[in-house]
Amino acid sequence: MQGFYMIPDYRNLEESGKFAQEQGLCFEYNDFFTPAVLDDERVIKERTRAYCSMKRERSGDTMHGAFFDVTVFSSDAKIREISLLRMRQSMQIAEELGLRAVIFHGNYLPFLRGASYDANWLKYTEEAVRSLLEEFHGPEIYMENMFEDSPELLGVLAERLQGVERFGVCLDYSHAALTSGNLEPWFVRLSPYIRHMHINDHCFEGDAHLVPGEGKTDWEEYRRWKETYAPEATVLFEVSGIEAARRSVEFFRSQGLTGCDGKGKNEKSGK
């Protein structure tokens, strides 16, 4: 399934690698975003060595960057400093692994919305992205929506970074559905910048990360928005475990839902 990703199970790397190869999936690593891991150099080295030892191409793979309490736009300079440190650690690991991109959360809190808060978010998030891409010359950076109830601010950030080749948006389909309900504005506003997507299912009661088809998501609506506005975007099945990834693949195949080749070609339309 070209253009699709799974989260590898570190405890079952051989099986993860075999399944990914059989299905034509890339990896999105979820090992390196928790503070406990980022504070333990031994664990980082152990896991990067294990992934590097696998006989597979990693240049198309992605990684979820640090996000717990990462507030690079804080009005507190000390918090900005430690947040940027965590983002730099993510970029260092991705560069060592030779990955395509790192996904970071915007971590914007809509309840704090206001002129000053929004201005800080735009100013410092843009500065952080630019500085990281200048320092690290390999991985791209994709900013993901998390708590945002509107795509507007993320769209403004993307416009400001429009000339930066290695920046893009990761649209989390379930996050957008849960925070705003109406998906079309997200695709319309962010369409020029969407390079990657996260998908899973839910029952409109929280970010449950259910296997697609096992919740209440309207997948025909997903098909319409994806094929119309983001046909070139790659897609992660953001579910836990190899069995959940297997059921995700089976559901998408049964529904005729396709991805892309990761290089701008849509499997179904050929565009």
Features of this protein?
single chain, 271 residues, alpha/beta, 8-stranded parallel beta barrel, globular, disordered C terminus
Secondary-structure topology with pairs:
Elements lengths: L3 E3 L6 H11 L2 E4 L5 H4 L2 H13 L8 E3 L12 H21 L3 E5 L9 H21 L4 E5 L7 H9 L6 E6 H8 L3 H7 L3 E6 L19 H11 L4 E4 L4 H14 L16
Parallel strand pairs: 1-2, 1-8, 2-3, 3-4, 4-5, 5-6, 6-7, 7-8
Helix pairs in contact: 5-6
Question: Can you offer a commentary on this structure?
Answer:
By secondary structure, this protein is of the alpha/beta class. Helix content is 44%, strand content 13%. It is built from 10 helices and 8 strands. It has helices at residues 13-23, 35-38, 41-53, 77-97, 115-135, 152-160, 173-180, 184-190, 219-229, 242-255, and strands at residues 4-6, 26-29, 62-64, 101-105, 140-144, 167-172, 194-199, 234-237. It has an 8-stranded parallel beta barrel, surrounded by 4 helices. Strand 4 (101-105), helix 5 and strand 5 (140-144) form a beta-alpha-beta unit. The longest helix has 21 residues, at 77-97. It starts with a strand and ends in a 16-residue tail after the last helix.
Stretches where pLDDT falls below 50 for ≥5 residues?
261-271
> What proportion of the residues form beta strands (DSSP E)?
5-15%
Helix-strand string: EHEHHEHEHEHEHHEHEH
Largest sheet: 8 strands, parallel, barrel
Number of helices: 10
Rg, Å, rounded: 18 Å
**What structural category arises from helix and sheet content?**
alpha/beta
The strand order across the widest sheet is: 1-2-3-4-5-6-7-8
Mean pLDDT: 93
DSSP helix fraction:
40-55%
